[in-house]
Amino acid sequence: MPIFFVLKLIPVLAFILFEFTLVKPDWAYYSAALLNLAVIFSVWAIAGNRKPWRQSVKFYLLPIITLNSAALFSFFLVSRFSFHMIALVFSASFYYFLGKVYSFFRRQKAVEAELEDFSFFSAVISFFFFACAIYGFQSFLGISAVWLVFALILYTALSGCQLFDFSGIGIGSGALYLIAFCVIMTEVAWAVYFFPFNFLVSGAILGFFYYLCAGLLRLAAKKALNKKIVQFYLIIWFVASAVLFFAARWI
């Protein structure tokens, strides 16, 4: 299989399948299945058997989590332009990710830091999409909050695993931090559930908490946390919170 096909054409195929759901909404589930298969195939074509299975899981988890979060979020978009932007951004970021994965298996040290940063910001944005989606399902479909919280715990665990793995944090040293991460996000999600906000604002609040907790716990697990970093994250959180709560009345 020529690597050109994987690196260049599959991201284009992902964009086409995303856009196809606008033309044929009834085929959305089939498009989602094909998109997931395309993601798995493309990562497998690059990674193959070059690493043990456990060390390769993160390369599959990141794009699959991002894809499905974006797909769930797109169900609640009323603007066609917003849907086009989601499709375009995912396809472009997937193209970038595949290129970095290809480079990773050729010259590992050169792109490790870039993959770590990319996985972190992708995880934050994906969590925002997922959080908006679960609050949207609860608001519009009346799904029990218990099931949604369970889904959030599972999602947080999977997202945290790939995030810690890209950061070079092993299961043994990162297990307690991952458990704490899941507990904190569950408590915050349950509290936000009772706020009188729409699903976008609730998802944004949860996304900001994810950014704060994931960043601090990741660095704590790597023994790289210090006072300046904590102050930076807190400043970002307070500024973002002030802007969000001020703008909530117009969203």
What is this entry, summarized?
The protein has 251 residues and is mainly α. It has helices spanning 3-23, 28-47, 53-74, 80-104, 108-141, 145-166, 171-193, 199-221, 227-247.
Shape summary: globular
Tell me the count of domains.
2
Provide the helix percentage: over 70%
What is the H/E order?
Answer: HHHHHHHHH
Q: Which class of secondary structure composition applies to the elements?
A: mainly alpha
Total strand count, please?
0
Binned strand content: under 5%
* Beginning-to-end CA distance, first to last residue: 47 Å
Identify low-pLDDT runs.
Answer: none
Enumerate how many helices there are, as a single number.
Answer: 9
Mean pLDDT: 84
| Rg from Cα | 18 Å
Biggest sheet features: none
Structural account:
With 251 residues, the protein is an all-alpha fold. It folds into two domains: 106 residues, no CATH class; 112 residues, no CATH class. 84% of the residues lie in helices and 0% in strands. It contains nine helices and no strands. Helix 1 runs antiparallel to helix 2, helix 1 runs antiparallel to helix 4 and helix 3 packs across helix 6. The longest helix has 34 residues. The termini are far apart. The model has no long low-confidence stretch (mean pLDDT 84).
List keywords for this structure.
single chain; 9 helices; 2 domains; 251 residues; mainly alpha
Give the arrangement of secondary structure elements.
Elements: H1 3-23, H2 28-47, H3 53-74, H4 80-104, H5 108-141, H6 145-166, H7 171-193, H8 199-221, H9 227-247
Helix pairs in contact: 1-2, 1-4, 2-3, 3-4, 3-5, 3-6, 4-5, 5-6, 5-8, 6-7, 7-8, 8-9
